[in-house]
Amino acid sequence: MSQVLFKGQQLGKYEIVDSLGTGGFAAVYLAKDQWINKLVALKVPHYQNYDMEHMLKEPRMLARLNHPNIVGVFAAEKASELFFIVMEYVEGESLEGMLEREKILPYKLACRYALQICDALDYAHSQQVLHRDLRPANILVSRNGVLKVGDFGVAALMEKIPYAKTIIGTPPYMSPEHFQGKATYASDVYSLGIILYEMLTGTLPYYDVNPVKLEQLIAEGKCTSPRVINKDIPRDLNNLILRAMAKDVENRFTSCRDLAQALHFFLGTAPEKREMTEIKDRIRARVTTPSARCWNCNWPMPRYTKTCPKCKQSQ
Fold first, then answer.
1. How confident is the model at residue 203 (pLDDT cuts 50, 70, 90)?
2. 38: closest CA among 74, 64, 76?
3. Is 91 in a helix, a strand, or coil?
4. Among 57, 110, 223, 297, which residue has the least CB neighbours within 10 Å?
5. What is the C-alpha separation between 286 and 284, in angstroms, rounded?
6. 214-219: long-range pairs with CB below 8 Å, 24+
7. Residue 287 domain-assigned (yes or no)
8. What is the CA radius of gyration of the chain?
9. Is the pLDDT of residue 288 over 90?
10. What is the pTM of this model?
11. Cα 29 to Cα 15: distance, rounded to the nearest angstrom
12. Residues 6+ apart with CB under 8 A from 91
């Protein structure tokens, strides 16, 4: 069962500094590695009576992942009869905390955040890791605006299976197929669509205190369009969000990479769109920029000419 750790308590070479939060499966503490004088996050599972192979499942999966938008894992250790995972400490706040304070984010900021999450998930999927519990509480926002996806505690390794059968996650962010025990990489895309909806509207598209009714609402896929709630959301972005959270997998973005490309194109940061804009800017500059004049006689200078054709002065 769970055990509460207190400030100043020693856990091996780690000194507990503060509690960072607790969830259904584990508690997380800010600690100081006294050997190298470094702040880290310690994730201590509530249930400590599993065999070591089971306890090592999450840190071994995290060890596969090395990405700037994923919370890093340093080690898995045991001290004072407690098993814990030593992880990167991200100074900042959770996306959930930010949304509780700000309610609604500017749409360009929300898109930039979504792009960072897309990068993290696309990488995790390339390593055959399905998150399965993507939600604002599991996304950290550092003080310099870098997002870190964390809590892979219920993630599934998709090496030899077509989909994850266990129905586990946070219901308002779960896709219809997730409820049916058929979660795939597209299910993480759906969860990200829900988060994008929430960042821009301040509310969830589907919610009911009754989990059976909530599952029914999600299965029907009928929600209020985000643009109806927030008129500042551009129409193209509105349609993009609805496609990301489409109830049917075949109507959804096929991958986080596809969603990222759509977001880049919307923001004007897609390579093909950016290059076209740069070409147009160069053409416009050639048409509108007046020719220079000679510093000596004020004669109009032909473009790229270094000597005045009238007074022969070097420019």
1. very high
2. 74
3. coil
4. 297
5. 5
6. 214/171, 214/172, 215/171, 215/179, 218/171, 218/174, 218/175, 218/176, 218/179, 218/247, 219/176, 219/179, 219/247
7. no
8. 26
9. no
10. 0.82
11. 10
12. 142, 143
Please tell me whether residues 240 and 182 are part of one structural domain.
yes
Helix axis angle, 185-201 to 256-267, nearest 10°? 30
Neighbours of 108 (CB within 10 A): 12
CB 83 within 8 A of CB 114: no
Predicted pLDDT at 220: 94
Other C-beta atoms closer than 10 Å to the C-beta of 128 total: 15
Confidence of residue 163 (pLDDT cuts 50, 70, 90): confident
CATH number at residue 30: 3.30.200.20
Structure tokens at 51: 């065999």
Active-site choice (18, 33, 122, 133): 133
Is 77 found in the same domain as 190?
no
Report residue 187 as tokens: 């299910």
Asked about 133 being catalytic, the answer comes back as: yes
Together in a domain, 108 and 55: no
Q: Are residues 104 and 75 in the same domain?
A: no
Q: Which long-range contacts (CB under 8 A, 24 or more apart) does 144-149 make?
A: 146/68, 146/69, 146/116, 147/69, 147/95, 147/113, 147/116, 147/117, 147/120, 148/69, 148/70, 148/71, 148/88, 148/90, 148/120, 149/69, 149/70, 149/71, 149/117, 149/120, 149/121, 149/124
How many other β-carbons are positioned within 10 Å of the β-carbon of residue 152? 24
